[in-house]
Design goal:
By secondary structure, the protein is α+β, with helices and mostly antiparallel strands. It has a single domain (4-239), classed as Sulfite Oxidase, Chain A, domain 2, CATH 3.90.420.10. It contains 7 helices and 10 strands. It is globular, with a radius of gyration of 23 Å. The two termini are 41 Å apart. Residues 1-24 have low confidence and may be disordered. Bound molecules: ligand MTE and molybdenum atom (MO). Residues 66-70, 122, 157, 159, 166, 194-196, 208-209, 211-214 line the site of ligand MTE.
Amino acid sequence: MISRRHFLIGGAGLLLPGCDRLDRNDTFKEGLRAAERLTMAAQRLVTDRHALAREYGPEDISPVFRPNGNVMPQSPDYARLAEGGFADWRLRVDGLVERSLSLSLAQIASMPRRTQTTRHDCVEGWSAIGRWTGVPLARLLDLAGLRESARFIVFHCMDRFGALPYYESIDLIDAFHPQTILAFGLNGRRLPIANGAPLRLRVERQLGYKHAKYLERIEAVASLEGVHGGRGGYWEDSNDYEWYAGI
Ligand SMILES: Nc1nc2c(c(=O)[nH]1)N[C@H]1C(S)=C(S)[C@@H](COP(=O)(O)O)O[C@H]1N2
Ligand SMILES: [Mo]
């Protein structure tokens, strides 16, 4: 037991006889900790995909969260939705689900939410820390009810590069990871258009291009083969980017 007095007398407290016992105790604890570290390391080998990404404090938030890639879908439809504050926007959830969903932003924002301050890493060599608020993807998938045959979740976006729509996909490990959220808030405000309004994916264990912005549809599929170019994402199809971009 360390009494409050030991703390008050600071360093001198270490010379008190009672602290002999503390020291021995510490050595013993150190041994335990070493054993614990070994177990953890072994466990990591099999459970790494489930580990949490580091979360940061408010003091770490980047003053500006740099927008990248498309900073606004160019369609008249999107302009109209944005003008109306996205009141007419709907997120469709379909594919290999028991119940297809069509959800408004208000409905999504009224579900149990999660806020997390994380670092975004772009392959182009920049990072930014932001505080994201959104609904866990797991929650929506549970509402829709995934069918047995579902293996991947595909995110369809409202923007395109030339003729090709932006899209991305993840497996079910990332889909049900507790930090995988559909974010509608950034740093305590509504998600800005440049960062993917009204809703964008945060999949914190992967690189920036996996974090699909401007979502309009989430589709559960058994295989990625039939989806667009078949490699699971816009960059994967067009520029040979890795489908699994773990960090
Ligand atoms: N729909 C869509 N999602 C996207 C992109 C995009 O151009 N369109 N760019 C990706 C890339 S490369 C990065 S680094 C991040 C950038 O997110 P930000 O604009 O919030 O910085 O979004 C990703 N998701
Ligand atoms: Mo990126």
